[in-house]
Fold these 2 entries.
Entry 1:
Amino acid sequence: MMVEMIERERAVLITFTVHTRKFNSMSERNKFYKELYGWKQIVKKEEKRYTYRREGLLDEIPHVKIDRSIFIIMKRHMDRMRRFFEDWEDKIKWNMFDVLLDEEREEMLRRCLDEG
């Protein structure tokens, strides 16, 4: 009896810790978070308020957020994430771990790719 093997795509669990004291300022630390997660900008003009969503790297890369500084991405996006974290390497500590997702979480990431 031949068992059909379904090729499952690998994912990567990424964790990071920010060393606040190593940043030159809180502004620089906030820049790290904004570049990663994006941010909401509110502009007041006269009596009106305009809200804009400024995208970060994780707006472009489908991911599953596990906790504040832990998320999972598909391995095919790891090069972009690695470059980003290496740019901040002197101020943060980061690790990555290969993981195999259950079918539900893998499908969730695939849907994000299709919608993006």
Entry 2:
Amino acid sequence: MTDNTRPCCPHCNQPMKKWKVPPDSTWNEEWHWVCFNDECPYYVRGWEWMVEKYNHRSSYRHRLNPSNGTCGPLPVWSPEAHKDYIIDDEDDDRK
């Protein structure tokens, strides 16, 4: 995978966004790809699953590490969580 190839989320097929990894993270990369589609089934189902399994009101978004191609959840505590770390715009075709 190249940095310039914008992937689509495997759960909703929407283009993912570059998300700046917070400075206190254990990830070594500067950014990851994250699905910020609020209608993504992975994200939507996550709210119910987290309440059922952990009695915690939270969810997760699909995340892709551009360095090694691994995927995983990005935990979120609200629909707006982590959106302040988006570093691109989905309409920008250059990314």
